[in-house]
UniProtKB/TrEMBL annotation:
PANTHER family: NACHT AND WD40 DOMAIN PROTEIN. InterPro entries: DUF7053. This is DUF7053 domain-containing protein. Residues 5-147 form the DUF7053 domain. Pfam families: DUF7053 (PF23155).
Length: 148
């Protein structure tokens, strides 16, 4: 059963909603911000209507450093106009395969807007717990980087 978590970060009033959306839609910035141990990445393909709803998506192969060496995974990014971005990670670790889906949304709010990330992790029980803990620990800092 997938493990889920949500991280919500208020957007400072000095940062516009459009600026945060632009940062999320910048795939180079997205990859460099969400993969702090990045070794390299390459654009694999673009599909003009492959994502749900017929939106265009871009597929990347990302290699990053892990405590036990390095790992390569497939990352599919789909910009959601006026809302945020959807990310799909498909990878294989020594402990098995994993699928991580995240929906980043810039939420309207009063007195301020917020950046919300909903994450669903589908892996074996040990990996679910480890990945969820990592997301909850490291992603609030990633949110701040999108607002700089």
């Amino acid at each position: 059963m997938p493990s889920e978590t949500t991280i919500t970060t208020p957007i400072p009033t000095s940062v516009s909603r459009d600026a945060v959306l632009a940062a999320l839609h910048d795939h180079d910035r997205y990859i460099r911000t969400t993969c702090p141990q990045l070794i390299d990445y390459a654009h694999v393909s673009s599909n003009p209507a492959a994502a749900p709803g017929g939106l265009p998506c871009d597929v990347y192969e990302v290699t990053d450093k892990r405590p036990i060496g390095q790992t390569t995974f497939r990352l599919t990014l789909t910009n959601q106009p006026g809302e945020g971005i959807d990310a799909l990670i498909e990878g294989k670790a020594p402990t098995g395969s994993m699928v991580i889906k995240s929906r980043w949304r810039v939420l309207e709010g009063a007195p301020q807007h917020a950046l919300e990330e909903r994450v669903s992790i589908d892996a074996n029980m040990l990996m679910n717990k480890m990945i969820k803990g990592n997301v909850e620990k490291s992603h609030p800092e990633q949110h701040q980087k999108f607002m700089m």
